[in-house]
Specification:
Elements lengths: L1 E6 L6 H4 L2 H8 L4 E6 L12 E3 L7 E3 L1 H12 L15 E10 L2 H7 L4 E5 L5 E2 L1 H6 L3 E4 L9 H12 L9 H5 L18 E2 L2 E2 L2 H4 L3 H19 L1 H10 L1
Parallel strand pairs: 1-2, 1-6, 4-7, 5-6, 5-8
Antiparallel strand pairs: 3-4, 9-10
Length: 238
């Protein structure tokens, strides 16, 4: 898989992409991540990529030219007016207007061989970018951030970790929260007793059938308590 990230702050990504699971995935050749500085596609000596909004209003708006140039340069293909109708290039834009990202979406994005992520700033983007360059709009929550860089990092981390071969134990990925619309069950490790607090006996029993059942019940109880909406979603799917 290839992930191309377009941003005006490329240095923000280096610490995240150069550590832990994402770094290992790149070293294994399971994913290639490219960072592009949007200012390199400004077309002017001042590298200016924004302008005031027509009709007035606060803040600056991201101009369409650099975005179109960047995407076309990365993909080696033209966008509007040459882009075929209904032809998806899998270009993702992070915005509060987007669909809230859930695990099901992450698994869907996994099927693409290449993704282009646009992490923008400013008051907004020129509407022509949204209409004629972007394929999907994604949000990571109903709150306001300074830009799309952090959502892009969240997206990449969630996606890369489910690429086959990235996480050492495939089973651990399948058991994680949200995979079956349930939160994760409780985990315990050494010591068996800490300040009078003991590990549940069933986990020390060696009876894997009972352990599996205990974890299933506890996962359901935790989800019902903390995220009842997931229980309702699971009920509707059955």
């Amino acid at each position: 898989m290839i992930i191309d990230i377009i941003t005006i702050f490329p240095n923000m990504f280096k610490p995240v992409l150069g550590e832990s699971i994402i770094k290992r995935a790149q070293n294994k050749g399971l994913v290639k991540i490219n960072i592009y500085d949007l200012r390199d596609y400004s077309g002017n000596i001042h590298k200016k990529i924004d302008s005031p909004a027509f009709g007035g209003g606060p803040g600056m708006v991201l101009r369409p030219e650099p975005v179109f140039k960047a995407i076309e340069s990365i993909l080696g293909e033209s966008l509007y007016p040459h882009k075929k109708k209904n032809s998806k290039k899998n270009i993702v834009f992070f915005t509060p207007q987007g669909k809230i990202l859930v695990q099901k979406d992450i698994k869907r994005f996994l099927k693409y061989q290449r993704l282009v992520l646009l992490a923008a700033r400013y008051e907004g983007i020129d509407e022509r970018i949204r209409k004629y360059a972007i394929d999907e709009e994604v949000s990571i929550g109903d709150y306001v951030l300074s830009g799309g860089e952090l959502p892009a990092m969240v997206f990449v981390d969630a996606l890369v970790r489910i690429i086959p071969g990235v996480v050492s134990s495939r089973e651990s990925v399948l058991r994680e929260s949200f995979e079956n619309n349930l939160l994760d069950y409780p985990h315990y490790t050494k010591p068996r007793e800490f300040r009078g607090l003991k590990v549940p006996d069933v986990l020390l029993s060696g009876d894997h059938k009972k352990i599996k059942e205990w974890r299933k019940i506890r996962a359901y109880e935790i989800t019902k308590l903390k995220r009842p909406d997931l229980i309702e979603k699971k009920r509707k799917q059955t």
